[in-house]
UniProtKB/TrEMBL annotation:
Keyword Calcium: yes
Record-stated family: Belongs to the fucolectin family.
Protein's organism: Poecilia mexicana
Protein name: F5/8 type C domain-containing protein
Function according to Swiss-Prot or TrEMBL: Acts as a defensive agent. Recognizes blood group fucosylated oligosaccharides including A, B, H and Lewis B-type antigens. Does not recognize Lewis A antigen and has low affinity for monovalent haptens.
Predominant location: secreted
């Protein structure tokens, strides 16, 4: 079993920007990290927005510290002034720091965003990267944002996370405990003592507790060699409920 779950991964990232506004007194309150502090306050004077100097092609970037599949980016625009500065900015995501990450693949361009609003970019195609960069292309531009949320999950690996779970089943046939189905051994022969089995039950079941809620994207089941048809018609159900021993979860 391989698993994914989506969260705002920007919160534990590291932010930087092309420059920092130098005008007093706000120069001390417009650092790049303000955009990933979890505070959606869109008033720059409250100390939770970023602001570059006026320059050519200013940018802001978050390093997610690992490669992620990004499903959504949400940008909160400044609300107290100059909301039009966000119009036309590009969002780029990738694994390269060439030219400060500004040449990674373009995934979206912000058309317009109202003052203080949050502009959501939903990525329906697979987008993978460690760096999320927002750039305001052009001459004598200013870039300021008040929050950048990046939702996604680590790029999947082939690690079998089922081995960290806890297995149980409706009944136990002697010598065929539930744990055998997650012991990492794929031999399908009963004689190797690595298959689980129930007694002859009405609607027998086997269940794995993953320890926390995840999004499941792949399951591999190794069948028993000697009686391969016993698994015919078996249902796979996944969810967060233990009602009816988990058998009421979605199929």
């Amino acid at each position: 079993i391989s698993l994914i779950f989506s969260e705002n991964v920007a919160l534990r990232g590291k932010a930087t920007q092309s420059s920092q506004y130098k005008g007093e007194p706000w120069n001390a309150f417009v650092g790049a990290s303000n955009a990933i502090d979890g505070n959606l306050n869109a008033d720059l004077t409250k100390g939770s927005c970023t602001h570059t100097d006026t320059e050519n092609n200013p940018w802001w970037r978050v390093d997610l510290l690992d490669s992620y599949i990004v499903t959504q980016v949400v940008i909160t625009n400044r609300g107290d002034c100059c909301a039009e500065q966000l119009s036309g900015v590009e969002v780029r995501i990738g694994n390269s720091l060439r030219q400060d990450g500004t040449v990674n693949p373009l995934v979206a361009t912000v058309s317009t965003a109202a003052a203080g609003s949050s502009y959501a970019i939903n990525l329906t195609e697979r987008v993978e990267g460690r760096y999320v960069t927002i750039i305001a292309p052009g001459v004598n531009r200013v870039l300021h944002v008040c929050e950048v949320e990046v939702y996604g999950y680590r790029a999947p690996t082939e690690e079998n996370v089922a081995v960290y779970g806890k297995a149980s089943q409706s009944t136990v046939y002697p010598g065929a405990i539930a744990y055998y189905a997650i012991d990492g051994y794929r031999e399908g022969l009963w004689s190797q003592s690595s298959c689980s089995a129930t007694n002859n039950d009405f609607s027998p079941w086997w269940r794995l507790d993953l320890g926390r809620t995840h999004k499941v994207f792949n399951i591999n089941i190794t069948n028993r060699v000697e009686y391969p048809t016993r698994i015919d018609g078996a249902e796979i159900r996944i969810g967060d409920s233990l009602d009816n021993n988990g058998n009421n979860n979605p199929r």
